[in-house]
Write a structure and sequence with these properties.
It is built from 7 helices and 4 strands; from the N terminus they run E-H-H-E-H-H-E-H-H-E-H. It has one domain: 2-Layer Sandwich (Alpha-Beta Plaits), CATH 3.30.70. The chain has a 4-stranded antiparallel beta sheet with strand order 2-3-1-4. With 138 residues, the chain is α+β, with helices and mostly antiparallel strands. The structure holds cytidine-5'-diphosphate (CDP) and magnesium ion (MG).
């Protein structure tokens, strides 16, 4: 039997503003992923830079921080078997031009930065991100 995992998932500001958060959340729930924590936040620069620390110094970093802090987003922890890999498959590649047909980013992303969703990319990242976003979770 596959491992039960947790992932941090963000519905980014571009998706919240277009009122498609519910549609996106339904994709996860319809695929057997359970919401175990959820909140709405508008990020300050410091929090956003810590979340995306691995990308500091890259050409797209400023644009990424500007867009992720632009308005409210929804943060959640999803749980399920092989959650990390399955959620990233549901999301599709970060560049919507490369995201497979029917994936969330293929359906909804505006461009390579405002691409509607974030999800943890491995168990170590998931642990770090969940502790950063939901310190109250055990
Ligand atoms: O989000 P994901 O893990 O799929 O991609 P990433 O490579 O970790 O990049 C994080 C985020 O930075 C992406 O989701 C995009 O919003 C943004 N990005 C960008 O604006 N331009 C790029 N060339 C690569 C990433
Ligand atoms: Mg990433």
């Amino acid at each position: 039997m596959a491992d039960k995992q947790r992932s941090l998932v963000l519905i980014k500001p571009d998706a919240v503003r277009r009122e498609i958060a519910g549609t996106i959340i339904s994709v996860y729930e319809d695929n057997g992923l359970k919401i175990v924590a959820m909140k709405m936040m508008k990020l300050d620069r410091e929090f956003a830079e810590e979340h995306y620390a691995e990308h500091k110094g890259k050409s797209f970093f400023e644009n990424l921080i500007r867009t992720i802090t632009s308005s409210e987003l929804i943060a959640m922890v999803l749980e399920g078997e092989d959650a990390i890999e399955r959620i990233r498959a549901l999301n599709g590649k970060s560049d919507p031009a490369k995201a497979a047909e029917g994936t969330i980013r293929n359906r909804f992303a505006l461009n390579g930065t405002e691409n509607s969703v974030h999800a943890s990319d491995c168990p170590v990242s998931a642990e770090r991100e969940i502790a950063h976003w939901f310190p109250e979770l055990k």
